[in-house]
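Shape is hard to put into words, and the shape of a protein is harder than most. The fold becomes a row of whole numbers, each drawn from a learned catalogue of backbone shapes. The outcome of that step, for a single protein, is printed below.
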Amino acid sequence: MTDETRAKSVRARHHWRRELVELAALFTAVAATDSVADTVVHGADGPVLLLSSAAALLATAGFHTWWARRHPAPARLAGPGHPAGPGHEEPEGDGGTTLWRMRTTVRDEPGSLATLCAALARHRVDILALQTHPLADGAVDELLLRAPDTLAPAGLSDAATAGGGSGTWLERADAHDLVDAPTRALTLATRTALDAAELPLALRQLLGRCTIRSLPGTEAEVPPEGMWDESVIRLPDPSGGTITIERPHPPFTPTEFARARALVELDARLGPRVPPRSDVLTLPEGNEITVRRAGLGDLAAAREMHERCSPATLSRRYHGPFGDADRYLRHLLSPRFGRTLAAYTASGRLVALGHLLWDGEETEVSLLVEDAWQRRGVGGELLGRLVAMAAEAGCESVYAVTQSSNTAMVGAMRALGLPLDYLIEEGTLVVTARLAREQGAPAVRTGSSARER
């Protein structure tokens, strides 16, 4: 017997009991009504009793209305299967919402955080995530908020001030900020462990909007544990020199300094490393080349390629007379300043280099193709992969600096199929390609095929 059949038999067996109870209740109600009616009709105070009853009922209804206005019940949200009834009222201003990142300093005493949360709640602000950065004389609370669109930034700051916050800083957030801090830190540590070139990007994503520079050891020296003040963090670069991180607002906290130092120490322990992946590409003319990440281990092959390039080719690449190849190439091949792709022939000869260089908050792309391999699709293949890497790294745009007469570079940028901006000044052309982060890596219009190995 199924549960449904069993339930039906139980209801059928006991339905007569319920009917007897209902009949008994009905007889009792009739008897009570008859007794009251007899008292009112035959009693001397019948009309007075009726009027008093009506007055008592009206007074009760009036008191209930006054009490409900002074102590409104919490609004119940309609859920699946429980639609809001006719008396249900949605809260005022339930339109769109905006994500915000807020930092504010509160006193280091019991109840200060509760006061801040209550002040934000009065403006219908939802706290999605919270981090606390302890200070010597207080604490910096970093909150991810969802606020109504009708609440202006100034109103949000005023609410934080009313809740005991000071030095409040606000910035618009997006869906990427919904990832909690431990998960973000572990993800960045994993990326850094796999690729030394990820360290500057990981630091930027860890610390938000900031400027990161790598300085040679002769320009700045820091102790092994690093240095920190409100707007600048200096850490020893494992590859030599100093990593300088600058952010005027909001000031760095001791917690952020400790996180950045831990990420740099991880990079130092793992040493130089480049992902081993490579792609074998078949060019439109049938030749095969291997494209892979390059590093300082490719320095000797890069020097030999420079010696085979004509002065005109080197001039277009470096925008003028070319001098010390070793100094340039050590900078370009270092993972601290960006990423480099190298194209090798089947015989193991380096014929092209493509660079993706971190320039503060901007990103530059550049190409150098040996004369005998120009206009054969090699540069376009490298450029497409560099731009895809920039999109994966979260860059909003990339730019190329070249001579206005360098039609090959302009053609390669146009072949990306991305929106381009052109700026010409004294014969120098700057072409900027805007990347759509939400659409992923851009598709590159090339005629080659690739296989991974």
The longest helix spans residues 3-42. The chain has three domains: 97-174, 181-270, 278-452. Confidence is low (pLDDT under 50) at residues 1-13, 74-93, 438-447. The domain at 97-174 is CATH 3.30.70.260 (Alpha-Beta Plaits).
